[in-house]
Amino acid sequence: QVQLVESGGGLVRPGGSLRLSCAASGRYFTDYNMAWFRQSPGKEREFVAGISWNFDLTWTSASVKGRFTISKDFSKDNTKKTVALQMNSLKPEDTAVYYCAAGSKTSSYSSDFESWGQGTQVTVSS
Questions:
Q1: Which of 21, 36, 118, 124 fits a disulfide with 90 by CB distance 3.0 to 4.6 angstroms?
Q2: Quick check: 32 and 25 in contact, CB under 8 A?
Q3: Is pLDDT above 70 for 28?
């Protein structure tokens, strides 16, 4: 089982930037792909971006491509591993709870991801 903890959400004005982080731990978690999803009230959970731990591979939703960037980071002693989502040029429609997820497939479907974080709220408003 992979444990995921998100951080970095908050309130930002339209056009602003935020950086979300997901701290990953647990046995064999580097065997998984990681992704960010988001969910707004009354809407289904939506794929945002994904990344492979072991390969130089990312995939991004068309709705955020060119504005959001997913990346991975390892601490020097390799004990801490994080996946970040840099969000630029934010729009009010980006307002949602953002979730970090881990799964074995290169996928944009939430059903293909087995482990989830608790979510972090992002609000884009003037």
A1: 124
A2: no
A3: no
